[in-house]
Design goal:
Length: 779
């Protein structure tokens, strides 16, 4: 990328006295191949337009002001930014960032002084554009309607109103004149000697005439007030109407721009294989690459190609797939770049190149036939807002919810669903390379979100002391146990041990907030994974889940945030980024990217995919510094081998849309099993009633269980208070322990330093003895 401060002047033309126009050279970011390019910018009437160097001749011609050259100038304009709706920001001494309509423009001046001149001019132009748009001159009466047709229409309306008011005034005068004459005549009649009955009638007619005159005066006063009001507010109404018209025009232009971008994306996607094949294959081709870049510099932005500006949430690196010839040359010359000089540690046909998920465990004949469906979800309607309007800002676990918003699984069972793709860990346990093992662990961490894409229903909050076991030792070699160890805040401990060489444990506390339009769910706590043979110990945390359109629209779920997976033994890391969905983003929805690096920070693998479909990994051959990103930082360009599929989501079972969108594993989680603990989630009555479609009974049972749990908690708090009083009275020094989980106890983790619940043993032994006497009656 060329330095924008060298080789050309970027000074702006000083504006003429009293002129609102500002012109000059600036450098605009175009794309990662060309970087910053010199452009001629014109600021006028609240609009910032820019032109290519080759278009400058049209700008000079346009100074003549002819209609023909004005049309040519409009034709050669490369883009226009409306400052009234733009956000102006500065990054460093010379950079200017403009954000408007979902697009970001990165500009650069040659000096800090020049940058400040442009920022001042842009701010003044923006303020003026906003003043023109806003309604801040209601009482001035100096501004006229924006067009001759609007002015004529307003004047015509006022003339009609004045004419009608004159007619009403004339009628009022006549009414007052004739009314007065009528009253005089009636008064004279009253003075005459007439029968008593006739006099009373004349008096009644006189009173009615007086009321008529008063009413006519009130009518004419009301009409005069209406005219005054119309004259006062007509200009403000006209400006409001004009603003709405401009907004509609701007919206139409935005939609048209989005349609063009969509077409350009489709064209770029169709041309992608050609672009990849023309990528320079080796650093030795610098001469050819420089010649190609010079050609691109000469061609600049042609009329058939549209380059998009950098997005704020774009990844911090770029990947380029190497061709087969490049791979061969690098294998022969041992040019591995960032891979540490070991190009052959990528096994093309071994663990890291599956065509689908490893199903070696699933090929074993299961000991029992698991169920493949649950009763269809009933179609019961419910007014969501009547419940949600009083819950804004509260913890989700403290909101009393009917089962209409639930799915017939508990949070403990949802936690066990993380093992849907346990075969990734089985395969990772067989890896000799810790870096390849890290790739599989990263794919496993992403796979746990694949079941959430359609699962907008809320799982049941577990009762304190509730457990859930998932014993798949004979089928897949692992045993899983969850227990609700705390109720406020809600926390669950999970422990899994596999005969195939790994152990996983975690304590998850769910923090959630309802914000009116969306619901944020923040899982707190670390996940630990230990491989028995190698001793590798991995630690990571979950990202934030967001449920959108809580009140209006179709519910949808998004995952966003960063995951850092650390191998505590080797200090190797994997950085995963879950990109949040954006309407204006050009990336695929639900995108996940990541880089696996060794203890020295050297990148070895690039991960890419989506959290609802698949994850691929590509081995890095070479890395280099590329163009600047949206924050002015250089992005790394990774040249990689062809990507290998690590994980692919299993298709949902048939009729899943009517079965809460459960996966094959989820369909079996609440299946009745013998010999489970008496606190197991399968035995929870309200959850079982809901699964059977008896929702009214389930709601009643849910209220009973919650009230029973509250009574137990009040009793426990009373015991704690009594123990405290006894301690103070007798100074016994004995503290009240409070509630203690049955199968987990708190220990300080030697890796993270945090105190969390870990499995202390005894559950599976109690199951073999069928001795559950130590368990509480929570149901």
């Amino acid at each position: 990328m060329s330095d924008p401060g060298k080789g050309s002047s970027a000074s702006a033309a000083a504006p003429a006295p009293g002129s609102d126009t500002y012109k000059g050279w600036l450098f605009k970011w175009t794309n990662y191949l060309k970087g910053y390019q010199r452009r001629w910018f014109v600021l006028s009437n609240g609009l910032l337009s820019y032109y290519r160097s080759v278009d400058l001749c049209f700008i000079r011609i346009c100074a003549q002001g002819t209609d023909r050259t004005q049309a040519e100038m409009a034709h050669t304009c490369r883009g226009t930014i409306n400052l009234a709706t733009a956000h102006i920001d500065t990054e460093d001494a010379c950079n200017i960032v403009l954000s408007s309509g979902g697009r970001t423009y990165h500009l650069k001046a040659s000096t800090e002084v020049e940058r400040q001149r442009w920022v001042t001019a842009l701010e003044l132009a923006k303020a003026k554009a906003i003043r023109m748009m806003n309604d801040q001159s209601d009482d001035s009466g100096d501004e006229e309607p924006t067009s001759q047709s609007d002015r004529s229409e307003l004047q015509g309306t006022l003339k009609i109103l004045v004419s009608k008011l004159d007619d009403l005034s004339t009628c009022n005068d006549l009414i007052a004149k004739h009314g007065a004459a009528l009253q005089r005549s009636l008064s004279e009649l009253e003075g005459l000697k007439v029968p008593v009955e006739g006099g009373e009638k004349i008096k009644a007619v006189n009173e009615r005439a007086t009321l008529f005159r008063i009413t006519s005066n009130a009518m004419i006063n009301a009409c005069r007030d209406f005219l005054d009001l119309a004259e006062t507010h007509s200009r403000r109404w006209q400006r409001a109407l004009q603003y709405e018209r401009e907004q509609r025009t701007h919206l139409e232009e935005t939609i048209e721009q989005l349609a063009k971008q969509h077409n350009s994306l489709e064209r770029a996607w169709r041309e992608a294989p050609t672009l990849v094949s023309t990528t320079p294959s080796a650093p030795t081709a610098n001469k050819g690459g420089s010649e190609r870049l010079r050609k691109e510099e000469a061609s600049d932005e042609d009329g058939d190609t549209e380059y998009f500006d950098a997005m704020e949430d774009s990844p911090a690196f770029i990947t380029v797939t190497a061709t087969e010839n490049t791979q061969h040359r690098r294998s022969q010359s041992n040019l591995s770049g960032a891979s540490g000089g070991q190009p052959n540690d990528w096994n093309q046909d071994d663990n890291m190149s599956p065509g689908h998920n490893d199903v070696s465990g699933k090929q074993l004949q299961p000991c029992r036939q698991r169920r493949t469906r649950v009763p269809d979800k009933p179609n019961y309607s419910l007014n969501l807002w009547s419940i949600m309007k009083n819950c804004i800002g509260k913890e989700l676990s403290k909101i009393p919810m009917p089962v209409n918003f639930n799915e017939p699984l508990s949070m403990l069972q949802r936690l066990s669903e993380d093992l849907e793709y346990h075969e990734l860990l089985d395969k990772a346990a067989r890896c000799d390379s810790s870096l390849e093992q890290m790739c599989l662990v990263a794919a496993f961490s992403v796979s746990s979100y694949s079941t959430t894409i359609h699962r907008t229903a809320k799982p049941f909050n577990p009762l304190l002391g509730e457990t859930y076991e998932l014993d798949r030792r004979e089928e897949f070699g692992y045993r899983s146990l969850c227990e609700q160890v705390s109720h406020h805040p809600p926390a669950a401990a999970h422990h899994v041990i596999s005969q195939r060489g790994w152990t996983l444990w975690q304590e998850i506390t769910i923090a959630s907030k309802f914000r009116g339009k969306y619901l944020s769910i923040m899982p707190l706590g670390a996940i630990h994974l230990h491989f028995h043979s190698s001793g590798n110990h991995y630690v990571w945390r979950k990202v934030t889940s967001t449920v959108h359109n809580i009140i209006v629209g179709k519910l949808w779920i998004d995952q966003s945030g960063d995951i850092e997976i650390v191998n505590q033994r080797t200090k190797e890391t994997c950085q995963l980024k879950f990109s949040p969905y954006s309407y204006f983003s050009r990336d695929v929805p639900r995108k996940v990217t990541g880089v696996v690096a060794d203890s020295g920070g050297q990148a070895h693998y690039v991960l890419s995919g989506t959290w609802d479909d698949k994850i691929e990994s590509a081995k890095i051959l070479q890395s280099s510094r590329g163009g600047s990103g949206s924050e002015g930082k250089q992005k790394t360009v990774y040249q990689t081998l062809a990507p290998k599929l690590l994980w692919k989501k299993y298709p949902l079972p048939e009729n899943a849309e009517n079965m809460y969108f459960f996966s094959a594993l989820a369909l079996t989680l609440n299946e009745q099993e013998d010999a489970v603990g008496v606190t197991d989630s399968r035995l929870r009555p309200d959850q079982r009633l809901m699964e059977d479609g008896r929702w009214d009974e389930a709601n009643s049972e849910k209220q009973r269980l919650e009230e029973k749990q509250r009574a137990v908690r009040r009793r426990r708090e009373a015991d704690a208070s009594d123990a405290l009083d006894e301690e103070c009275e007798y100074d016994s020094g004995k503290e009240y322990e409070g509630y203690q989980p049955l199968w987990f106890h708190q220990r300080r983790d030697s890796v993270t330093g945090e105190t969390n619940f870990v499995y202390k043993g005894g559950y599976w032994e109690a199951k073999e003895r069928q001795d559950w006497s130590m368990c509480s009656n929570i149901f």
